[in-house]
Specification:
The chain is mainly beta. It contains two helices and 25 strands. The chain has a five-stranded antiparallel beta sheet, with no helix packed on it. A four-stranded antiparallel beta sheet has the order 5-6-7-8.
């Protein structure tokens, strides 16, 4: 079961990676404040540092709820979450998080002399994201079929909180400021996402299918891909195209279309340049190349730009999700159930350990 779920996750991540581009930079975090009594630290962090990690909603979109595989009458009784092993993420160079073959979240350094459990329990960690300044770990806990939960864990106080459930396969991603968390669920390109607000302890669904997203540097907006129904239809999916839009989390999830897809091409989110401009990827159907378009959000002006890789990597690595250290010396990537390291300076490759979902500290 674990191998099947890992294969499903890898297929899903590959689809999202190809559509939205790979997040290849490790980035520091932005300001925020936690007043949630369950999750706030004894001494809430003061100010964080800045970080950086279209138009018809799909009328026929049915957000996955978990019932696709397990009906209401067959759904097993829920199991209470039990966290049996914990550790405190350490702030040191060349450390990374990963999920081992037993589904435990661990931290390790590249030399292997540190390799310790951060979270384990009566579940397997299916996905995770760590916000060090907020002292919070968001993770997706797979307990058994039909019982998959989104959980926040405060690694300073030991408190945890279930913020969502009913996922088949889930992904979580923090905003740079640590206030918002994306809960991403589903198995298709178009996915159901919700936004959890740590400050107000509220969960708000985005009421349209989303195909990829990128956080703004301040953490208050999302650059997203949304389904665009076109006529005549495209050769993709069920004939739909994709547009790029910006969602404002401080404005009742107001949506601004920034580049509309057509019958001829598909538009997907790529990255934020700064608070006033974004880059989207324009893919013409039937072609193997992409164009990258920089858009000024203030006046709507556009110009073609470069792909903006943070580090040129070997071709086989570029096709996989990978993580680059801030000094651009090391790259983590996964292959055949193992986590591997590439030294960009020496071109040396090392097999570090069994596992998946490696992320630099």
């Amino acid at each position: 079961m674990r191998n099947l779920r890992l294969k499903a996750c890898l297929i899903l991540f590959l689809i999202l990676f190809l559509l939205a581009g790979c997040k290849t930079e490790n980035q520091s975090v932005a300001p925020g404040h936690l007043d949630n009594p369950v999750l706030a630290s004894e001494e809430p962090p003061a100010e964080y540092q800045d970080n950086n990690t279209g138009s018809s909603p799909g009328d026929n979109f049915n957000p996955p709820t978990g019932d696709e595989k397990v009906s209401e009458t067959e759904k097993p009784a829920e199991v209470k979450i039990e966290i049996t092993e914990t550790g405190v993420p350490a702030d040191s160079p060349n450390k990374f998080f990963y999920v081992d073959k037993e589904g435990k979240l661990r931290q390790r350094n590249i030399t292997g002399d540190i390799d310790e459990t951060i979270i384990a329990g009566n579940f397997m960690v299916e996905n995770y994201d760590v916000h060090m300044d907020a002292q919070l770990i968001a993770f997706v806990a797979y307990i058994k079929p039909g019982d998959v939960k989104f959980i926040l864990y405060n690694f300073k106080t030991g408190d945890y909180k279930i913020v969502g459930d009913n996922a088949i396969i889930g992904i979580v991603e923090w905003s740079p400021n640590g206030r918002y968390l994306v809960l991403d669920r589903g198995t298709y390109i178009w996915r159901s996402i919700e936004i959890y607000d740590v400050l107000t302890d509220t969960l708000t669904p985005v009421k349209m299918p989303i195909g990829g997203y990128r956080w703004s540097p301040d953490g208050n907006r999302l650059l997203v891909g949304i389904e665009e129904l076109v006529d005549p239809p495209t050769p993709a999916g069920e004939g739909e195209s994709s547009s790029a839009a910006v969602i404002d989390l401080e404005g009742n999830l107001d949506l601004q279309i920034v580049f509309q897809g057509t019958t001829e091409f598909w538009v997907s989110p790529y990255r934020w340049v700064d608070k006033d401009s974004v880059v989207v990827r324009k893919i013409h159907f039937g072609e193997n190349t992409s164009k990258y378009i920089k858009i000024n959000l203030s006046d709507g002006t556009m110009q073609e730009t470069e792909q903006l890789y943070s580090l040129p990597v070997p071709e086989d690595m570029a096709r996989r999700a990978h993580e680059v250290t801030p000094d651009m010396k090391y790259v983590l990537y996964g292959h055949d159930g193992f986590i591997r390291l590439w030294n960009a300076e020496t071109d040396e490759r090392l097999e570090l350990c069994e596992g998946s979902l490696a992320k630099w500290r």
